[in-house]
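Why run this: before we spend reagent on co-expression, it is cheaper to look at a predicted model of the complex and decide which construct boundaries make sense. The entries below are exactly what would go into the expression plan.
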Amino acid sequence: MGSCLAERLAHYVSLTAGEEQALGQLEQQERSFRRGTTIRTENDTARDLFVVQKGWLHSYMLLGNGSRQIMRLHFPGDIVGLSNLAFGHSTDSITAVTDVTLCPFDKDRLAVLFEQHPRLAALMFALTVAERVSLADRLASIGRTSARARVASLICELVARLRITAGAAIDKFHVPLTQEEIGDATGLTAVHVNRMMRGLVDDGLIGRNGNVITLLDEARLTAEVNFVDRYAEIDTSWLPKAR
Amino acid sequence: MGSCLAERLAHYVSLTAGEEQALGQLEQQERSFRRGTTIRTENDTARDLFVVQKGWLHSYMLLGNGSRQIMRLHFPGDIVGLSNLAFGHSTDSITAVTDVTLCPFDKDRLAVLFEQHPRLAALMFALTVAERVSLADRLASIGRTSARARVASLICELVARLRITAGAAIDKFHVPLTQEEIGDATGLTAVHVNRMMRGLVDDGLIGRNGNVITLLDEARLTAEVNFVDRYAEIDTSWLPKAR
DNA sequence: CGACCCCTTGATTAGCCTCAACAACCGTGG
DNA sequence: CCACGGTTGTTGAGGCTAATCAAGGGGTCG
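The model came back. Tokens follow.
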């Protein structure tokens, strides 16, 4: 079995033997954590990053007023903990939403990768830019749209991302998030999230059964949100040659 | 005169002659634009990025409901247009807030840089991560804090960033933004921005004279906001060796 | 079986938006 | 040099969205 990171990057380019081997070097280990475990807290000075192998996580910041802003949900294939790279420390906390398996690797290893495999470096650069754009989408959603649209938008984002890992156009999803977590991701209270979701159900846009959400009218749902799928494609045409 | 990009990166590491020359290659040209010019619009498929040499710009997204979310202000030394790298197109629009001078360079040149100068590639990667963290701060501010705190936070961010380019701890700034622009950056209406700024003035936190803002009580201002200066330092300890 | 967490719903409050009117300022053209 | 239109800033009044407060129900885990 290759490395988690290799699997991730292979989605975008076909890796050479040399690249695959280099990526394999990054991961001698994998670690599992139980649901609810906080893997990293703000200002941690750990030197390793993780590739998610199995499960969901979220990263968030805690504010002085006691509230929490969830920055991003992390799914299998995602790289988490990048802020430890750019700063000496973590800028957010990371908690396991479900039981998870992670592949840690030290940031010094990344330097080796940049030296020996420029194509992979450039690809990781592009992926980081893409993630920043995704954050920008969330910013626009929270800054400039109604509560209902924010919740709908989050659902659309989850659908788009889950379909990538699922590999099919499924329309029924298990979403292991509490309404409080959805609120912390969308800048709303749990109570108001509840009302908005009920609204979406009442209007026939989605169905809900426990934690399982069904898309009933995807066209109208995406129409309510100016949703753009950032996960479908990355431009790899400019990447340098593989080594 | 070296390249704009070289100047920017030299803030973090001392460049070798080879690196400096490689960066110089990126910029044969510089272009000027008048205040108000839109340099790039959403979905543009241009292939070049820019380094800001002089002036302010902002990047923003327009939403279906007619509103605008300003994602980021760009100052001299910043790189803009990165989304054209990761996707085939631009994900945001970029407009000149003041008269500006930019240094454009093609994204293919960046590939060469990744191949020949891994240290610079890694540094640019770290800077992109830092910018993402800065966006995350804004997300927390807009998602989870009051209107007053959002405006105060924007002022703190401007101060921190302007001091870097100014190179001194000045406490008086010309801010060429309209209140509508401040609103679009903070997710508020211009009217409410006006009231919040008046509140900050009335409470003696800031002074205002036309577009010039004076910090009167910086300690209390930063205390109201859980502000972290992300621009002070980048961890360069992990970077590969220079070539 | 009890404690706790999560969901749900109602009533009330508060923060921010909308609408509106006017003043100050700027660049432009006569 | 002044007149003018357009943009920006300022302030007030009222309305709506989402927060807060509160109470009860269901599920799960110890």
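Chain B has two domains: 4-116, 147-225. Residues 147-225 of chain B form a domain with the Arc Repressor Mutant, subunit A fold (CATH 1.10.10.10). Bring this page to Monday's planning discussion.
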